[in-house]
Design brief:
The complex is a heterotrimer of chains A (about 230), B (about 230) and C (about 290). With about 230 residues, chain B is mostly helical. In chain B, about 80% of the residues lie in helices and about 0% in strands. The radius of gyration of chain B is 21 Å and the shape is flat. The C terminus of chain B is likely disordered. Chain C is globular and about 55 Å long. The C terminus of chain C is likely disordered. Chain C is α/β, with parallel strands linked by helices. In chain C, strand 4 and strand 5 form a beta hairpin. A six-stranded mixed beta sheet of chain C has the order 6-7-8-3-9-10, with helices on both faces. In chain C, strands 2-1-4-5 form a four-stranded antiparallel beta sheet, covered by helices on one side. Classes of the chains: A mainly alpha (about 230), B mainly alpha (about 230), C alpha/beta (about 290). The interface between B and C is medium-sized, with 27 and 32 residues.
């Protein structure tokens, strides 16, 4: 794909028209990486959140420290770590997959916190009422706690998705051909950086706006009858 | 353990650049955040639209795109900037946009009751902002600004991409020399984590500092004790 | 006596909801007026308009000789900021939730506005504030913060804060309805003292009917943005004539109007505790 990059820089318009389809291809990679990373973050975050609540400190403590560590260190370094270290242990993933895993891992630190806060925000009264009605703890989760936690959790998870979308250009550093990488390649070939980079920025803005709008839409459509969010 | 010490020595040269970039960017971001947040909160004519566009652009696109744009494109349209300037400018503008939402949110969270009391006592809007609203809002802003400080620290790693010789940059150099990726990046992560703990500590101290000693409940709950 | 407040044909709506319509209302200088009525009847809106917290659409208001029009709806509320400033100089207000500034000491709460708005020296403002604090019986709380005070004490500080601006009209918007029952008395005592010792014009929205009867010169019954009945408290609260007043007082004072009749030592039903019910249903327990 890099080799058939062939852009006409004779006029701004023709340059623009040649770059746009290229960047749109890169945008597909960007979105795919973001969605995959988000899916990993959703699942891994839940896993960590449950371990975090483990009855023994032997588990809950190390998990808490690990999550703090993952949240507070740069994604770039975590990405390099996975990209260069995993193959040493015989795990060879395509760069795209490594990128999605790194993003998913970093954001699982956030989603775990979101799940925990969502459940924590439900008042003690709900637990006490469930105990008073003799519900089992599984039943309490299933019919009392989780249904009330979901509408609280969705806006924050949505913000996570939009955040992830803005992180994906970092995959260009491990040579994934996503939008930013393509824009820079075009720049390096033609010595015209402004148009491809600006265009990449504008496309990014459009996509994040659309995603942010979708997230708001989902927030509105989730049933939350009778649940007080504040 | 021997290699870790050696790696740490090599990487620690980059700490200075990381700390300098963080300090300049974060302080500028806080200043930008207050100006933009207040402009949007007070709905200053014309300026509020400028502020809105600024926040949307810098929150809606990714930092790496912004850094590359400043680094590659500013010189082409006639502004020559050093990598250091581009790095700090990019980080400050990006985090300033996020910070402005913190400021605006905290100002909006101050109860309407406080504004009504200020009106009833005939304060003008500037007096209301400076004497009544901001002092209350600042207490609410400090914890999220602490989180922003950690985000900025993590983001400083990206300035290595525009050739600032920070910790991340030194790590890349070291890898091309030794190929001992696992140990190099482990030490690098440790360094960043330690710096993050320092930022957290500063945040906690700031929280203590802005909170009056008498305070036992969150400030916003005080207005209406029902 | 001259009128200090006059509403002429004032209309006010929130969106499509009409709150006041062609509203006329006069208050004489020094008069103590209580506004009663169901919630949403417009009584609080009258106070909030006087305090310039709410704009209105049509009509005019005169306060202490200063007239204030809002022809043509939108805009003029902000346009004459100077004018509003002058009006606010004469009017003070007490709020249901006191609205003290939580980040300032009690003394600072009282002195801040005199210093920044009236441009008094800090020493002068402090001295006056301490006088006012001793008037409301809180001279020892000057350096406390609002959160350290009880609700009743906070409302007394709020009274001192309003008086520090030397208003000629004082508005009370349900000043005791957010208080625990045992704290209501201390606030009412301060208001009582104010009414007796000062030539303040007072407008009060309250559900404390006994207090209203004792303190006011006139009671106005509001319903749907109009005053449906007004008169001396000894008349209106004892022998209401309008059916809305009859049913409202019946609801507030408990069944049987005339609860505030001359046998006035009957406990205030608004504050009376509910009769103690049975503690749990023993029959069900026995069956279970």
């Amino acid at each position: 794909m890099i080799n058939d990059i062939n852009v006409d820089t004779s006029s701004t318009l023709s340059f623009f028209l040649d770059v746009l389809p290229l960047l749109l291809k890169g945008l597909q990679v960007t979105i795919a990486a973001a969605l995959l990373g988000f899916a990993i973050a959703l699942v891994a975050g839940l896993f960590f959140a449950i371990l975090r609540q483990a009855p023994t400190r032997l588990i809950s403590w190390p998990v808490a420290v690990f999550l703090e560590f993952v949240r507070d260190t740069p994604l770039l370094i975590q990405l390099f770590f996975l990209y260069y270290v995993l193959p040493v242990y015989g795990i060879t993933l395509p760069a795209f997959m490594t990128g999605a895993v790194a993003i998913g891992l970093q954001y699982s630190g956030y989603t775990a916190e979101i799940y925990r806060a969502g459940i924590g925000a439900i008042g003690r009264g709900q637990w006490e009422a469930s105990t008073a009605l003799n519900l089992t703890s599984g039943r309490t989760y299933a019919v009392v706690i989780i249904p009330q936690a979901i509408p609280r959790v969705i806006p924050a998870l949505g913000n996570c998705l939009v955040g992830i979308l803005k992180e994906t250009p970092i995959l260009s550093t491990i040579s994934v051909l996503e939008m930013l990488n393509l824009a820079i390649i075009v720049g390096d070939r033609t010595y015209h950086y402004t148009i491809p980079l600006t265009l990449a920025g504008v496309l990014m803005l459009l996509v994040t706006s659309v995603f942010a709008y979708l997230v708001r839409f989902i927030e509105f459509t989730v049933p939350k009858t009778g649940i007080r969010l504040r | 353990m021997g290699v870790w010490t050696a790696y740490f020595e090599y990487l620690s040269v980059g700490i200075e650049a990381t700390v300098v970039v963080w300090t300049i960017s974060f302080i500028s971001a806080v200043v930008i955040a207050f100006v933009v947040g207040v402009v949007r909160f007070q709905q200053v004519p014309v300026l509020r639209h400028v502020a809105f566009v600024y926040v949307e652009i810098f929150r809606g696109t990714s930092l790496l795109v912004q850094l590359f744009w400043l680094y590659f494109s500013l010189p082409l349209i006639g502004y020559s900037v050093s990598p250091m300037t581009a790095a700090c400018l990019g980080l400050a503008l990006n985090s300033g946009a996020y910070g402005s939402e913190i400021v605006r949110g905290a100002l909006t969270a101050v109860s309407r009751d406080q504004f009504e009391a200020a009106t009833a006592l005939n304060f003008n809007s500037t007096q209301t902002l400076l004497k009544i609203v901001l002092p209350q809002a600042v207490v609410e802003m400090v914890p999220p600004f602490g989180n922003l400080g950690i985000l900025v620290l993590k983001d400083t790693a990206l300035v290595s991409m525009i050739s600032i010789a920070d910790v991340a940059f030194r790590a890349q150099q070291l890898r091309t020399m030794t190929y001992d990726s696992a140990n190099i990046y482990m030490v690098t992560l440790m360094i960043y984590f330690t710096l993050a703990l320092v930022v957290m500590l500063i945040g906690k101290l700031a929280e203590r500092y802005v909170k009056p000693s008498f305070q036992r409940t969150p400030l916003l709950a005080l207005g209406a004790m029902r | 006596m001259t009128d200090i407040i006059e509403f002429k044909n004032v209309s006010k709506s929130f969106g499509t909801l009409r709150v006041l319509e062609d509203f006329d209302f006069k208050v004489r200088k020094g008069e103590k007026v209580t506004l009663i009525g169901p919630s949403g009847s417009g009584k609080s809106t009258v106070l909030r308009i006087l305090m310039t917290l709410e704009p209105f659409q049509d009509g005019s208001i005169t306060i202490d000789g200063t007239s204030y029009h809002q022809p043509g709806g939108k805009g003029p509320f902000k346009a004459n900021a100077r004018h509003l400033f002058d009006i606010r100089k004469r009017v003070g207000m007490l709020f249901q939730h006191f609205n003290l500034f939580p980040h300032m000491t009690v003394l600072r709460n009282i002195t801040e506005a005199p210093v920044s708005v009236l441009k008094l020296s800090r020493a002068e403002a402090d001295e006056r504030a301490r006088e006012l604090l001793s008037m409301v019986g809180l001279e020892d709380k000057a350096s406390s913060f609002p959160a350290q005070l009880s609700g009743g004490q906070q409302q007394r500080v709020a009274i001192a804060r309003a008086l520090a601006m030397r208003p000629s009209v004082l508005l009370f918007d349900e000043p005791t309805s957010a208080l625990d029952p045992e704290l209501v008395g201390e606030v009412l005592n301060v208001i009582r003292k104010l009414a007796a010792e000062h030539d303040l014009t007072m407008l009060m929205v309250t559900h404390e009917m006994r207090f209203a009867r004792e303190i006011s010169d006139r009671v106005c019954m509001f319903d749907r943005g109009k005053i449906v009945e007004e008169g001396r408290p000894s008349e209106l609260l004892v022998r209401p004539s309008h059916p809305r007043t009859v049913s409202f007082l019946g609801a507030v004072l408990g069944e049987g109007v005339g609860g505030l009749g001359d046998d006035g030592d009957q406990a205030d039903p608004a504050r009376a505790e509910k009769p103690p019910g049975p503690r749990g249903d023993t029959k069900l327990f026995a069956a279970g």
